[in-house]
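Whiteboard transcription, Tuesday session. T.W. wrote the C-alpha cells on the left side:
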C-alpha cells in the first residue's frame, strides 16, 4: 500500500491531505483495538466480572470515535476505553518518533494523602529564584486546582488501586510524556504554580516548561513504523515479558539500583558503587544482629548472565556474614520471566513451587509450542522429561485454541516441573541464601516482581512487609494498534495463577496484587523529608522480631 502511494507521488497524481484521520479511519482503528483485545486479552473475563465493564460492547465507543474533533481527541478516547480495563499494563502508545517530553522541573506524589513536591531539578529551578522545597504542597497549576486537574486526567489512566491511579494522574500535571494528552505545553510556554510552604505561606511562581521533541497534535499515517519483534523460540522465551510499560509507575526510583530510603549510619555498602553492579547491597547492625540488605530494582537487564554470576557471589557473602536479610523489591518494574526464576532460586534453600499461568491461546503460541516440541524430539540424546512436558503444553494449547476456549488450564511454559530447586555449585554445595528473609514490596512493585512476591509468600519463605502491590499479573506482548494511527498496543496475554496453601483454591494476581503480611507505608511526609528513616526503623524492627522467633524458614 505504501509503495503504491509513493509511486503515485512520483508520477504526479495528487493525493488527499493526511492532516487528520477521517471518521471512517477512526472507526476502523478503534474496532482494531477492540478486536485485538477480544482475540488476545487473557483477563477479559476478570474485567467483565470484577470491574463490570464489557470491552466488547464497542458500538457506543465507535460512534464517539467517529465524531471526535481531532486526532488528539480520538487518541484520548482510546485511552479512556483502555483505562476502563483497570490495568496499567494495557496501554496505547504512539509510534516511536521524535521523543517528546515536557516537565516543570519537579515531581509530585501523595504523602499522607497530601500532594507534595518530592524532587526538584535545581539546574532548571535554582533555589534563589524558586525557594520552595521538597515536602512543600502543590495547590494549583495555571489557576486550576489539583482536583480540577485530576478530574481532567484520571479518566485517561488505568489502575485498580485508586491511590495509584490518582498518583499517575497527578504526575501528568507537571510531567507530560505524550504529545496528545490534554493541555500539551509548547516550547517557551510558562506555567503558574501555587505552593503552600511548610511554614504555612502560600506562594505563586512562574515556571518555564522544559520541552523536548515535537508536540504533534495529529497522527501521521505515513510515518515509518517498526514492527513488533516476533516471538522467539524455544518456548522458554515465549510470553516471557513481565515488565510494565514506561510511565506505568508514578513514583521516584522505579527500576533504580539504589533504594528510595537512607539506610542506617553504620550501613557498610558492598555492591552498588560500580557501574557494572546489578544490585545494591550491604550490612548493618540492629539489636546484636547482623542485618543484610539487598535491593533488586528490576528483572530487566541487558546482561542477565553477568548479573546471576554476581548474585551467586553476593548471596554466599551475605550468607556467611549476616543473620538475616532484607530483600528490597519496592518499585521493581518487573522484567524477564526466565531471569526472575533464576533469581528466585538464589533465595530458597529448599525446593519451592513456582507460578503456573493461564494463557490466551493463539496460533502463534500454539506454533511456538509445536516448534519447541519438534526441537526436543530431534535432540540427541533426547530428554524424555522435557519431551513429555512440551507435549502436554502443546496438547493443552492446541485443544484450547481449537475449541475456542478463552484460557488454557494453568500451565508451566518455562519449567518441566512446578518445583524448582535451590541453586548449588558443581560440588553440590548450597549457594542459595538459607537464613531468614524479610521481603519489601509497595504499590509500585509490578508484574514480574509481583510474581516473585507471590512465590515467596505462597511457599512461606518469610514475611512480606510494605503495601499491596500493583495488581499487574500477567505476561505482555506488543501489537500494532491500528493501521491509520500507527499506534501500538501492550496487551496482557497470560494470568499468573496462585494456589492458596493447604486449600487448593486458585486466585490471580491480576487486579488483586500481593498483600503483605506486615503493613508499612513509605509514602508519609516524615519519610519524604527524613530520608525514609522512619520506614527503615519499621522494617528493621520487623526483621529483628522475626529473627527472635523460635522457628523460621
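and on the right, the sequence the group agreed on:
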Amino acid at each position: 500500500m505504501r509503495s503504491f502511494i509513493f509511486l503515485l507521488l512520483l508520477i504526479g497524481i495528487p493525493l488527499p491531505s493526511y492532516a487528520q484521520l477521517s471518521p471512517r479511519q477512526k472507526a476502523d482503528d478503534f474496532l482494531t483495538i477492540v478486536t485485538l483485545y477480544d482475540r488476545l486479552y487473557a483477563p477479559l473475563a476478570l474485567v467483565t466480572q470484577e470491574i463490570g465493564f464489557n470491552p466488547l460492547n464497542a458500538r457506543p465507543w465507535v460512534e464517539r470515535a467517529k465524531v471526535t474533533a481531532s486526532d488528539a481527541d480520538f487518541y484520548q478516547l482510546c485511552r479512556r476505553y483502555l483505562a476502563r480495563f483497570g490495568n496499567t499494563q494495557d496501554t496505547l502508545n504512539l509510534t516511536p518518533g521524535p521523543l517528546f517530553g515536557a516537565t516543570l522541573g519537579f515531581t509530585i506524589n501523595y504523602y499522607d494523602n497530601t500532594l507534595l513536591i518530592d524532587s526538584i531539578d535545581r539546574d532548571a529551578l535554582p533555589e534563589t529564584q524558586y525557594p520552595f522545597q521538597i515536602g512543600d504542597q502543590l495547590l494549583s497549576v495555571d489557576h486550576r486546582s489539583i482536583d480540577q486537574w485530576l478530574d481532567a486526567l484520571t479518566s485517561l489512566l488505568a489502575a485498580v488501586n485508586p491511590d495509584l491511579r490518582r498518583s499517575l494522574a497527578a504526575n501528568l500535571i507537571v510531567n507530560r510524556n505524550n504529545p496528545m494528552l490534554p493541555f500539551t505545553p509548547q516550547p517557551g510556554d510558562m506555567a503558574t504554580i501555587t505552593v503552600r510552604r511548610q511554614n504555612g505561606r502560600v506562594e505563586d511562581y512562574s515556571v518555564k516548561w522544559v520541552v523536548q521533541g515535537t508536540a504533534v497534535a495529529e497522527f501521521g499515517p505515513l510515518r515509518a513504523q517498526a514492527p513488533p519483534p516476533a516471538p522467539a523460540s524455544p518456548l522458554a522465551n515465549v510470553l516471557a515479558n513481565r515488565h510494565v510499560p514506561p510511565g506505568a509507575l508514578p513514583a521516584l526510583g522505579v527500576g533504580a539500583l539504589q533504594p528510595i530510603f537512607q539506610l542506617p549510619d553504620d550501613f557498610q555498602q558492598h555492591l552498588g558503587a560500580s557501574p557494572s553492579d546489578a544490585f545494591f547491597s550491604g550490612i548493618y547492625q540492629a539489636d546484636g544482629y547482623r542485618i543484610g540488605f539487598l535491593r533488586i530494582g528490576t528483572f530487566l537487564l541487558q546482561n542477565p548472565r553477568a548479573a546471576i554470576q554476581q548474585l551467586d557471589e553476593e548471596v554466599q557473602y551475605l550468607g556467611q556474614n549476616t543473620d538475616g536479610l532484607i530483600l528490597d523489591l519496592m518499585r521493581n518494574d518487573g522484567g524477564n520471566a526466565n531471569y526472575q526464576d533464576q533469581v528466585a532460586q538464589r533465595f530458597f534453600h529448599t525446593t519451592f513451587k513456582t507460578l503456573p499461568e493461564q494463557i490466551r491461546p493463539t496460533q502463534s503460541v500454539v506454533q511456538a509450542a509445536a516448534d519447541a516440541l519438534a526441537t526436543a524430539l530431534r535432540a540427541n540424546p533426547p530428554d524424555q522429561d522435557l519431551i513429555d512436558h512440551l507435549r502436554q503444553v502443546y496438547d493443552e494449547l492446541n485443544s484450547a485454541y481449537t475449541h475456542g476456549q478463552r484460557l488454557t488450564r494453568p500451565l508451566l511454559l518455562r519449567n518441566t516441573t512446578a518445583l524448582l530447586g535451590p541453586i548449588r555449585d558443581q560440588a553440590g554445595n548450597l549457594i542459595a541464601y538459607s537464613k531468614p528473609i524479610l521481603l519489601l514490596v509497595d504499590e509500585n512493585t509490578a508484574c514480574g516482581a509481583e510474581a516473585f512476591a507471590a512465590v515467596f509468600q505462597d511457599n512461606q519463605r518469610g514475611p512480606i512487609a510494605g503495601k499491596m502491590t500493583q495488581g499487574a499479573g500477567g505476561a505482555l506482548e506488543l501489537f500494532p494498534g491500528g493501521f491509520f494511527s500507527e499506534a501500538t498496543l501492550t496487551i496482557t496475554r497470560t494470568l499468573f495463577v496462585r494456589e492458596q496453601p493447604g486449600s487448593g483454591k486458585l486466585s490471580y494476581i491480576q487486579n488483586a496484587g500481593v498483600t503483605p503480611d506486615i503493613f508499612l507505608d513509605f509514602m508519609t511526609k516524615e519519610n519524604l523529608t527524613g530520608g525514609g528513616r522512619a520506614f527503615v526503623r519499621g522494617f528493621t524492627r520487623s526483621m529483628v522480631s522475626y529473627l527472635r522467633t523460635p522457628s523460621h524458614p
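Someone added at the bottom: The chain has 14 helices and 26 strands.
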